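re the bet — no i am not wrong, look at it urself. input seq straight from the record:
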Amino acid sequence: MTPPPHYIDPSTPVFDPATLKKTRYEGKTLLHATAVNDCFGIERFSMMLNAGLKHYPEDLGFLFQTNDDGETVCELAFNTQGIY
């Protein structure tokens, strides 16, 4: 699966941290998308989570933000990435 057309890599110098909070693709935030999509891998998920924790520590890096189906990033990461 290819990234959404408006996808911004958080390692790029022009990265806007607000992208983590407001961008949605098919009902998922960027962190949700990286948690469930194998083509991104655990490295991309880790990079997005670290960016969320750095810029939004008060939101715990969006680990408990829900998607349109009511699933949290944390739940999806445990279930799809095998994170224990």
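see?? DSSP finds four helices and two strands in the chain. told u. also The first strand starts at residue 24 and ends at 25. so pay up
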